[in-house]
Amino acid sequence: MCPFWRRSSKDLSTQKEKEILRQLYNSGVCAIGFEGGEPLLRKDLPEILAYSSSLPLHTSIITNGTLLKSRIDEIAPYISGIVFVSLDGMQKTHDLVRGVDGCFKRAVEGITAAKDKVSITINMTVMAENFHDIEDVVKLAKDLDVKIVLSVAHEYRSTDATAPETDELKKVAQQLILLKRKGYPIMNTTSYLKVIAKERNWNCKPWSVVNVGTDGRLVLPCYVHNQYETGVSVFENSIKAASSAFDWEAMRGCVKCNLHCYVEPSLVLSWDLHSWADWIFPTGK
Q: How many whole angstroms separate alpha carbon 193 and alpha carbon 200?
């Protein structure tokens, strides 16, 4: 999974988090996902989510689910988007990958406790270590009456996950397309699944996603190129100015990863450096 948790930095204050949210909104961002580490470890999370929701930003979080059962009532009123719960496989595989016995059980308990209060989606990273569990996790999502989104692991320099081989990826993508057609609750578009099956071409538009690190600095152009290193501070520069000044043209044609958070939006946007500027940074806010 993404090695965000390896970054060594202190949490920003509640006020600083709100400043970032206001900047994101003023820059034209319409939706936000709070990720970690583990966002539910923050005691001030309800206040941060409440502020995000009030702007209004379409507000989601990504969690390992182990604290979800105990905190869902605090956060549910402010989740206008989705609570993504990460599952890396069925019980044996998930606990092995996470390195904590019992965390699969707690995550599923969290999903069960929360699914009638917020929209829940299982978030599964496809890697060599859990390749054999993919169909079972998709079926588990259906049994739990929630959705599932899958993304292919990327081998960052600081991650322990191993991306599946190309032939394996093609097989699993074709399998997922069939399951989706049969009505299984797979959120990924068929277009994305065809990308990882090498049946469709794509060009990344990383400007469609704004990433802010735990230090309040932008990740430009994306996590894959930066390996999680951040640059411009959002407290010293506006997000709109920093993003507009970046040489996005240098990223044209990049297909370095299969991460759905970059591939999915890229599939629906054209590479027009005039139209995208109006789309991602609209005037009037």
A: 9
Residues 6+ apart with CB under 8 A from 168: 128, 131
Give yes or no for a cis peptide into 56 (omega within 30° of 0): yes
Q: Which helix (H) or strand (E) holds 200?
A: none
Main-chain dihedrals φ then ψ at residue 83, nearest 5 degrees = -95, 110
The pLDDT value recorded for residue 7 is: 64
Would you say residue 109 has pLDDT above 60?
Answer: yes
pLDDT at 224 over 80: yes
Please write down the long-range contacts of 256-259, taking CB distance under 8 Å and 24 or more positions apart: 256/204, 256/224, 256/225, 257/152, 257/154, 257/204, 257/224, 258/151, 258/152, 258/154, 258/169, 258/195, 258/196, 259/151, 259/152, 259/154, 259/224
Please give the Cα distance from 254 to 15 (Å, whole number): 36
Domain range annotation of the chain: 4-280
Residue 144 φ/ψ, nearest 5 degrees: -80, -5
For 194-214, write each residue's pLDDT tens digit: 999 999 999 899 988 999 988
| Cis amide linkage into residue 77, ω under 30° from 0 | no
> How much is the average pLDDT of 184-200?
94
Strand order in the sheet with 147-152: 31-34, 58-63, 83-86, 120-126, 147-152
pLDDT of residue 52: 98
What kind of fold does domain 4-280 have according to CATH?
TIM Barrel (3.20.20)
For the four alpha carbons of 276, 277, 282 and 285, in that order, the dihedral sign comes to positive
pLDDT at 122 over 80: yes
28-54 confidence digits (pLDDT tens): 999 999 998 899 999 999 999 999 999
